[in-house]
Amino acid sequence: MAGSALSDEAFERRKRAAAPRRATIADREQVIDCLTAAFATDPVMAWIGRRDAKRDKGRRAMFSFLVGTLGLPGNELWTADDFSAAALWVPPERADLKLPWWQELQMLPSIVSFTSFSGLGRVDAFRKSAEAHHPKTKPHFYLMTIGVDPKFQGQGLGGALLDATLAKIDAKGLPSYLESSNEKNVPLYKRHGYEVTKEFRPAPDAPPLWGMWREPRKR
């Protein structure tokens, strides 16, 4: 009976991930909590971020900035209703991720909190490398981040949320791009129509990233 109840809960949770809603300012903290937890063991985040006892707090500061600066203003921050999974898409008009100088200044404390002063070179290497490999020929949506609360990983929530948000992008007839920071997620993205365009490392000691492009599909 216990196994059946758990399966029922997982099924309902997946249904919620498959029917996400746009996050609002009222959802901000819960979405940040979800993404912060989801990336606790991410190889690239671990390489960029600080390596001391403040690493979790620093990672949360970075997601707080991204949600507040790109997610909520872009109106493409999506969440399952129970905050078990969330995705931050950047619309075509901001997909180049260029920030005005004053937002770059505002971001600096979050970056320092995330990586410490000793890690600023890693942040710079990551940003330059990602920018160099980011497609620039077509308008597209950019999947900045998608994450599932670790308590619920392995239940298909990430795939359900990804498919639901891609359906909205397909309806607009637009392609999309992402960088997978974890090799185990590459097959998931391929199942949803993405193709690897480039594998690259921000620095010789950095873990790899996979640039992936997807053309729109008819549904």
Within CATH, the superfamily carries the name: Gcn5-related N-acetyltransferase (GNAT)
Indicate the CATH class: Alpha Beta
Q: How much strand content do the residues show?
A: 15-25%
Radius of gyration, CA atoms, in whole angstroms: 17 Å
Query: What characterizes the major β-sheet?
Result: 7 strands, mixed
Question: Low-confidence stretches at least 5 residues in length (pLDDT < 50)?
Answer: none
Give, in spatial order, the strands making up the sheet with the most strands: 1-2-3-4-5-7-6
Characterize the quaternary organization of these chains.
single chain
CATH architecture verdict:
3-Layer(aba) Sandwich
The total of beta strands comes to 7
The total count of helices amounts to 8
What is the general shape?
globular
Helix/strand structural class: alpha+beta
Give your account of this protein's structure:
The chain is an alpha+beta fold and 219 residues long. The chain has one domain (2-214): Aminopeptidase (3-Layer(aba) Sandwich), CATH 3.40.630. The protein contains eight helices and seven strands. The chain has helices at 2-17, 28-38, 43-48, 55-74, 101-115, 120-133, 157-171, 186-191, and strands at 21-22, 77-79, 85-90, 141-148, 176-180, 195-200, 209-214. Strand 2 (77-79) and strand 3 (85-90) form a beta hairpin. The longest helix is centred in the first third of the chain and has 20 residues, at 55-74. The chain is globular, with a radius of gyration of 17 Å.
